[in-house]
Amino acid sequence: MKLQLLSVAALLGASLLAPSAPGQDLTVLQVTRTVQAQSYGYDYDYDDGLSQSHSTGASGAWDQTALADQSDWWGYAVARGKSQQVSDVAPDHLSFDLDVSAETFGNHFLEDSSALGDFDVAFQLPALRRYLITADVDVTLGYNQASVELREAGAAAKLFDVSVAQVGLDTGLAYGWLPPGDYQLLGHAEVSAFGNHTTTELQQGSASAELRFFHPGDFDLNGSVDSSDVYWVVFALTTGHPAGDIDGDGDFDYDDWDLYVTYYFG
Ligand SMILES: [Ca+2]
Ligand SMILES: [Ca+2]
Ligand SMILES: [Ca+2]
Q1: Could you tell me the residue ranges of all domains in the chain?
Q2: What's residue 79's pLDDT?
Q3: Which tens digit of pLDDT belongs to each residue from 124-159?
Q4: 221 neighbors 130 (Cβ within 8 angstroms)
Q5: Whether the model pTM is above 0.85
Q6: Closest ligand relative to 254 C-alpha
Q7: pLDDT the model gives residue 2
Q8: Spacing, Cα 30 to ligand 1 middle (Å)
């Protein structure tokens, strides 16, 4: 049923009442952020490898690179792994950009390299929040994978999942309301390259995401709660836009409006 009985003017009038001030968006429970890179080469009278990794359990901005850029004892390039992470764990958002690459150079009997980046943050939402998540993953053809997941802590079911394996790219966007509780945002990107005297490889991958939180009444996700939110709720309800099915029961009626009003004043 469309929401034809409602007067838009009356609903806009309701928005003149100020909603309550937003509280803290998220409480960080646990952080693990890692970058890792490795390289290895083997040949007649040569056998050596390199590895580098960094990790942090702290919140805040983190920009870190692990590099394993290997040359042999005579100066010939062997293999190179590189993992870079630019991420943020902030009171109102979580974001990360994981870039990994692995390369072999064709100068040895056996060469390999690998790189991985991980973002794993568990957090608590003390109160109902409107959320918006965007994600992109991308890997070249090979033994590669990249993924972004949002799930309730301890639950197998994923609230949001974008992933690729072997080759490909994917992108995702989701928004809605998250009830108070414990959640986990995960990002992973991993690539490997193999080669020898006659073959070389360059493998690349990335996983990036941004998860933002807003006041539950901020329907249009622009950072403020005002008459524009009421306008868009009414628009979504009257046009049957999926975002207007606020209670998720498949129809567009007063139940949705009543729930939104609860959120608005939440
Ligand atoms: Ca708004
Ligand atoms: Ca509904
Ligand atoms: Ca209904």
Answers
A1: 8-22+224-264, 27-214
A2: 98
A3: 999 889 999 999 999 999 999 999 999 998 888 899
A4: yes
A5: yes
A6: 3
A7: 44
A8: 30
Residue 101 and residue 71 in contact, taking contact as beta carbons nearer than 8 Å: no
- Dihedral sign, CA of 5, 8, 13, 16? positive
Query: In which residue ranges of the chain is pLDDT below 50?
Result: 1-9, 16, 20-21, 23
User: Phi and psi at residue 69, in whole multiples of 5°?
Assistant: -115, 100
Q: Which residues touch 198 (CB under 8 Å, ≥6 apart)?
A: 106
Sort 135 into a burial class: Cβ within 10 Å, 0-12 / 13-18 / 19+: buried
Contacts of 121 (CB under 8 A, 6+ apart): 28, 30, 31, 32, 33, 89, 94, 184, 185
In Å, what is the CA distance from 38 to each residue of 69, 164, 189, 201?
8, 22, 14, 15
Q: Take residue 240 and report the two structure tokens written for it.
A: 């049957």
With H, G, I as helix, E, B as strand and everything else as coil, classify residue 199: coil
Residue type, 127: A
pLDDT of residue 154: 80
Distance of CA 257 from the midpoint of ligand 3 (Å) = 9
The rounded Å distance from CA 47 to ligand 3 centre is: 68
Using the mean position of ligand 2's atoms as its centre, give its distance from the Cα of residue 180 in Å: 21
- Ligand closest in space to the Cα of 221: 1
What's the pLDDT score for residue 5? Answer: 43
